[in-house]
Amino acid sequence: MLKYPCLIMDHDDTVVQSEVTVNYPFFVEFLKEYRPGMTITAHEYVSECYSPGYIEMCRRRFGFTEEELDIEYRAWKEHIKTTVPAPYPGIGALLKRYQESGGIIVVSSQSAQENILRDYRIHFGITPDEVFGWDLAPEQRKPSPYALLATMDKYSLTPDQLLIIDDMKPAVEMARRGGVKIAFAGWGRKEFPEICAEMEKLCDYAFYSTEELEKFLFA
Predict the structure, then answer these.
(1) Alpha-carbon gap, residue 97 to 68, rounded angstroms
(2) Neighbour tally for 97: CB within 10 Å
(3) To the nearest 5 percent, what fractions of the chain are helix, strand and coil?
(4) Would you say 54 and 173 are in contact if contact means Cβ atoms under 8 Å apart?
(5) Phi, psi dihedral angles at 110 (to 5 degrees)
(6) Sign of the CA dihedral 123, 129, 132, 136?
(7) pLDDT of the chain, 219 residues: tens digit per residue
């Protein structure tokens, strides 16, 4: 019997390596057109996406208007239709084993549903049981506990039967509001000790390799 019958999986930089390999290069090109002369390093990009968050970074550091944010989002959606980020080593085998063992995989992400489903299909040959992506109404997106509540209602689960796997602070708020435990997906954050230190304090568990997480789930 699985320790947690349902996983609430983040997608970007938890399952696939998208922040530095896909999102950052796109953002740099977008800046060239909309903020010529302004730059940001990859390390700064990751750090500021963590805090204060991507949207706030765009507003505070680059002065993006709401119209420009909308333009950027639509351009990014077109870009990622043809750009497939690589998965983290071991995550595919873990997810397939988990699903084959009867576990429910729910994705709660700030990515679009079509891209999440594509990545799972291409890399793992499986389909998540549920996807709660950026396509939702703003009030239903993470950090709202909507994905947790909807999942528990549909599958007749209690909060102690769910475990969130995520690398960012909005998921911590979602976890607390839903009464669900959260594990820090630290395998993509090893080069950011300040992020790791804070997330270790905020989360119930912390794992720095997919192998560590797999051992925990199937212990």
Answers:
(1) 42
(2) 13
(3) 55, 15, 35
(4) no
(5) -95, 10
(6) positive
(7) 899 999 999 999 999 999 999 999 999 999 999 999 999 999 999 999 999 989 999 999 999 999 999 999 899 989 988 899 999 999 999 999 999 999 999 999 988 899 999 999 999 999 999 999 988 998 999 999 999 999 999 999 999 999 999 999 999 999 999 999 999 999 999 999 999 999 999 999 999 999 999 999 998
Buried b (16+ CB within 10 A) or exposed e, 148-160: bbebbeeeebeee
Q: What are phi and psi of 44, to 5 degrees?
A: -65, -40
Q: Which pairing describes strands 104-108 and 130-132: parallel, antiparallel, or unpaired?
A: parallel
Whole-angstrom Cα Rg for the chain: 17
pTM for the model stands at: 0.93
CB-CB contact of 13 with 188 (8 Å): yes
> How crowded is residue 71: how many other Cβ atoms within 10 Å of its Cβ?
15
Contact by Cβ (8 Å): 20, 47? no
Whether cis (ω within 30° of 0) applies to the bond prior to 5 is no
57 backbone dihedrals φ, ψ, rounded to 5°: -60, -45
